[in-house]
Amino acid sequence: MTIHASGPRFGRMLTAMATAFHDDGSVDLDGTARIAAHLVDHGHDGVVVSGTTGESPTTTVAEDGDILRAVIDAVGDRATVIAGVGTNATAHSVELAQQAEKLGADALLLVTPYYNKPGQAGVLHHFRCVVESTGVPVMLYDVPGRTGTQIALETYEAAKQWDTVVAVKDAVGDYARGVRIMAMGYDLYSGDDAANLGWLAHGAQGVVSVVGHAAGDEIAGMIRDFVAGDHAAALSTYERLLPANDAIMGVPNYGATTAKACLQLLGVLDNRNVRGPLVPLSEDEVAALRKGLAASHLI
After folding, report:
1. Which PROSITE patterns match (predicted)?
2. Which end of the chain is less enclosed by CB atoms within 10 A, N or C?
């Protein structure tokens, strides 16, 4: 892992990276390593593997291990590698966490259990089992739009009992609430590209992006400008990236689908394969994506 002596422990610019697949649906480890290298070559301090954008609900424990190993081999000597271990089965998440620790992940991304919608006691129990199963630093992930459950402030307070729980990826978008979470001692990362600049203005340490697949250098530059006090330059970059943000994140069929189509347009991948229930972007959707990237001067 790269040591960020003058900044946050995980760095400031991270992306929840896509997982490449062959035409037969199997994991393309070489393609996945190319994605990681592309990101780190273009402004990234770190990557998050096997998150939602990595299509983790469709990959097996063994595949997650292979993906993590491939990414660590590709970029682990020059970037932070965070392993997504969040599922809606606690024992499954514990297994993934222990595997990630064994393989050398720098941190874990732990989302609230989705679909089964536990109460806060269940959320804390889930966190406890996963956190106490390893000694690896943990970034909690709060994304109620996908999970149906929001982490309560009281649960954040209770989770501070574990020294390894150090950060939050926030996709709630409530800035005042986020400031309260940071006041508890958490490093907060924006989990919504449209909110990146707003979160920086409210004290966030950095971002976990999706648009970073296509705009890593630009978002990293925006962060540097903001941290350096050149807020006008940061705002100018944010404004320039709005068409790309809308094209990647503002359509119904977004996330892994648009990230992979970006990578195909940029020549990093030779396909945009995804696993069901996702379907690849249609030609019309790719054309709209290309238009948004071009409007932001990314292609």
Report:
1. DHDPS_1, DHDPS_2
2. C
Task: Estimate to the nearest angstrom the gap between the alpha carbon of 117 and the chain centroid.
Answer: 21
| pLDDT band with cut points at 50, 70 and 90 for residue 2 | very low
Residue ranges at the known binding site for pyruvate: 53, 208
**3-state DSSP assignment of residue 295:** helix
Query: CA-CA distances (angstroms) from residue 292 to 32, 189, 191, 262?
Result: 24, 25, 21, 10
The residue from 102, 114, 115, 141 that is catalytic is 141
Catalytic annotation present for 169 = yes
User: Among residues 169, 186, 189, 254, which one is catalytic?
Assistant: 169
Binding-site positions: 53, 208
pLDDT tens digits for range 147-198 = 999 999 999 999 999 999 999 999 999 999 999 999 999 999 999 999 999 9
3-state secondary structure of 185: coil
The encoded tokens of residue 242 equal 């709005």
Tell me the pLDDT tens digit for each residue of 34-87.
Answer: 999 999 999 999 999 999 999 999 999 999 999 999 999 999 999 999 999 999
Residue 43 · residue 221 · CB < 8 Å = yes
Report which of 16, 36, 28 is spatially closest to residue 275, judged by C-alpha positions: 28
As given in the structure block, the two tokens for residue 200 are: 């920086």
